[in-house]
Write a structure and sequence with these properties.
Blueprint (H helix, E strand, L loop, with lengths): L3 H6 L9 H6 L7 H9 L9 H4 L1 H8 L5 H15 L6 H6 L1 H13 L7 H11 L3 H5 L6 E7 L6 E7 L2 E8 L3 E7 L10 H12 L3 H10 L2 E3 L6 E3 H9 L17
Helix pairs in contact: 5-6, 5-8, 6-8, 6-9, 8-9, 11-12
């Protein structure tokens, strides 16, 4: 490899061994994955442009059963992080074919193991939905925070074993002015919400599927009485800009 990509690809770290050579060695030395990740990932994020240089090799390794999980997880981390960094927009666009290949592999392997939620988040990240790939969605005890779009009151949106409601979170009194959430009818879900719900149902994950109907449903504000779509406003407040337009993975119900 020549040009600026070569410098990123040859990221050597303290050992002088390049990321490229480490990837070439994973068959003989699976522990090389740990060193690769330590070069590219810090606190579950990759802000190094070398990440995009390794995507072709990760796409190839992800097609193999013995390396699929590690390759997909690293690729998803790279894409999830760098999509939020405007200075790497050109790199993101140039890697779109490799991201598409990784997305197909991730989708095909959704039901291949017990860690469905992590696989789902990888597939969502590789589909370009970096915001939804980064949030927690186990729905046993989830709390999201959002401002009411009508009166700006800060609300806690609770989805889990403790209930499904929005509330004003008071330091002394806990959750006050509770209003039950209004779940979406699965038949009315659209876009990435519909796809994630369908994937959870197909994988036999009822808790995740049910939680998604609340996350993509509506919440009421106990302060002003207004009702608003949870996911739309939550993403509007917190979602990053993205250099690649999101692609909803194909399902039986999507075009």
């Amino acid at each position: 490899m020549t040009g600026p990509d070569a410098e990123w690809w040859d990221l050597g770290g303290g050992s002088g061994v390049t990321v490229g050579r480490l990837l070439d060695s994973v068959d003989a030395r699976p522990a090389a994955w740990d060193e690769i990740e330590s070069r590219l990932v810090v606190e579950d994020e990759c802000w190094c442009p070398a990440g995009y240089a390794v995507l072709p090799e990760l796409a190839a390794l992800a097609r193999r059963d013995d390396h699929r999980d590690r390759a997909l997880r690293l690729a998803a981390t790279i894409v999830r992080s760098l999509h939020r960094c405007d200075e790497f927009d050109d790199l993101a666009r140039a890697a779109s074919d490799h991201v598409a290949a990784l997305r197909g592999t991730a989708r095909a392997g959704l039901a291949a193991g017990p860690d469905f939620l992590e696989r789902l988040r990888d597939a969502v990240a590789l589909a370009g939905y970096t915001f939804w790939a980064a949030i927690d969605m186990d729905f046993t005890d989830e709390h999201y925070h959002v401002g009411c779009p009508h009166c700006a009151t800060r609300l806690a949106v609770v989805i889990g074993d403790y209930g499904h409601y929005s509330a004003v979170r008071d330091f002394h009194d806990g959750d006050i002015h509770r209003v039950p959430l209004l779940p979406a009818d699965p038949r009315d879900l659209t876009g990435i919400g519909r796809w994630m719900h369908a994937a959870a149902v197909a994988a036999g994950e009822p808790v995740i599927a049910d939680g998604l109907t609340y996350l993509f449903g509506r919440a009421g504000c106990g302060a002003c009485g207004s009702v608003f779509p949870v996911s739309d406003w939550f993403e509007a407040e917190n979602g990053p800009s993205q250099p690649i337009d999101p692609v909803v993975p194909r399902t039986d119900r999507s075009a």
